[in-house]
Design a protein that fits this description.
six-stranded mixed β-sheet; single chain; alpha+beta; 13 strands
Length: 424
């Protein structure tokens, strides 16, 4: 289906489990492609913790056509800026290349996704790298506290997968337990997939190529509506050898997704409440009082809905003051409508970011592919989003603040210092 309204795009279904979204940009010199698999860490039980992340790593190892070294050489030869990532509900593999290398880039990723070997010797070596990645994150307390907040909120999940306070990418024990057979079993189920391409592209030629590569071999199921993990209000505190207290509050807003107007109102609320540079959290905690270097809030979206996440890193002696300030800001947003000037600044910041980012080809691909996958075929259009932002009123923001700050399940997590780094 071709659509010329606002941002030109093309959508296509290869089979019931592969959706394609293309944004042609004839003036571009490059093209970005992303393969978004509708599966992640929430599809694991505790025994399998981290297997989705292990799969992500092993996709860049030997396939039916290429050795690991040849895959690396091919990526270099194609001039590819490539990466991959695993989240709770999605795994993606992406690359940006000069536009004339797009077809070969797609063929390479298709071979990696369709015909991975998962060799035992390569898996053994890669486990060592993954375990070092786990250890690295254990010492990043700003990341740890967000993980703890998430897990405290959704900790009633099956098999206490989240209550374990394990990282999304697993534990040393769970990663070491993964076998080549486990990887084949998990990957052969072929999760529903979105393929998103942004840049200079011959649409008809690329659609034929994708159909030839995936129509017969990718036999996944259609995407079903995801349910929010069971959640509850909770609090979590751990102690580490750090000079700083890390505070994170995660609030669940299940069911709020684009194109729901409430999702747009949540974006505006998050901008007013906690955007870096000009927001109530940033101004009150950092600019006016100098209590923190990093004080922010943002509203990520997942396949079951949204969240509002607040993070502050501060001196341990100021942690109670910070939490009092956060509570006061939240109550004021519930009790009184934001002034029109503050609302207008927030809306203009969001609109500017949306329209500017539409010229960033890799970013446009990543955002659009993620939304297309998580929102069951919703096409991201920066112009339409900007119009939706313009329609949000101060009353909309106040009603959203009441829904977020008074009624929704939440978890406040802290990583508190128990001594200076290096002390016993």
């Amino acid at each position: 289906m071709h659509n010329e309204e606002f941002t030109r795009h093309v959508t296509f279904m290869i089979n019931k489990s592969v959706k394609v979204l293309i944004y042609p940009k004839s003036e571009a010199n490059s093209a970005s492609v992303g393969f978004f698999l509708h599966t992640g860490a929430l599809n694991e039980n505790r025994k399998q913790a981290g297997i989705a992340h292990v799969l992500e790593h092993m996709m860049f190892k030997s396939s039916r056509t290429y050795t690991t070294a040849q895959i690396s050489q091919q990526l270099s030869q194609l001039g590819a800026n490539h990466n991959a990532s695993t989240s709770w509900d999605q795994t993606n593999y992406r690359a940006t290349v000069p536009y004339n290398n797009l077809e070969n880039m797609i063929r390479l990723y298709a071979d990696m996704l369709l015909h991975p070997l998962f060799r035992a010797d390569e898996l053994k070596t890669e486990k060592g790298a993954i375990i070092q990645e786990i250890n690295m994150y254990k010492n990043k307390y700003d990341i740890l506290v967000r993980q703890l907040s998430w897990q405290g909120l959704y900790g009633v999940s099956t098999n206490n997968r989240l209550r374990s306070h394990d990282f999304l990418i697993g534990t040393e024990e769970s990663v070491n337990a993964v076998t080549s057979e486990d990887l084949h079993t998990r990957h052969n189920k072929h999760a529903p997939m979105t393929i998103c391409i942004v840049g200079k592209v011959d649409v008809d030629r690329i659609l034929k190529l994708l159909n030839d590569l995936f129509a017969k071999e990718w036999k996944g199921s259609a995407v079903s509506k995801d349910k929010c993990p069971p959640c509850e209000t909770d609090s979590v505190t751990v102690h580490r050898a750090t000079d700083q207290c890390h505070i994170c509050e995660t609030i669940d807003m299940s069911g709020i997704q684009y194109p729901d107007d409430r999702a747009v109102a949540l974006d505006v609320l998050a901008q007013i409440y906690g955007a870096i540079g000009n927001s109530r959290v940033y101004n009150e905690i950092r600019e006016k009082r100098g209590l923190a270097y990093n004080a922010q809030a943002y509203a990520p979206m997942y396949s079951w809905g949204s969240q509002l996440i607040t993070y502050v890193g501060c001196d341990d002696k100021n942690k109670i003051m910070v939490q009092v300030i956060l509570d006061d800001i939240q109550h004021k947003l519930m009790d009184k409508r934001v002034p029109e000037r503050e609302l207008e600044q927030a809306k203009n910041a969001l609109i500017g970011d949306a329209l500017i980012s539409s010229d960033d080809i890799p970013y446009m691909m990543l955002v659009s592919g993620s939304i297309f996958d998580r929102n069951h075929g919703l096409v991201h259009d920066p112009h339409r989003y900007a119009n939706a932002i313009r329609s949000i009123t101060a009353s909309d923001v106040q009603e959203m603040a009441k829904a977020v700050f008074s009624d929704a399940p939440k978890c406040m997590a802290r990583v508190d210092p128990y001594g200076k780094i290096g002390e016993k």
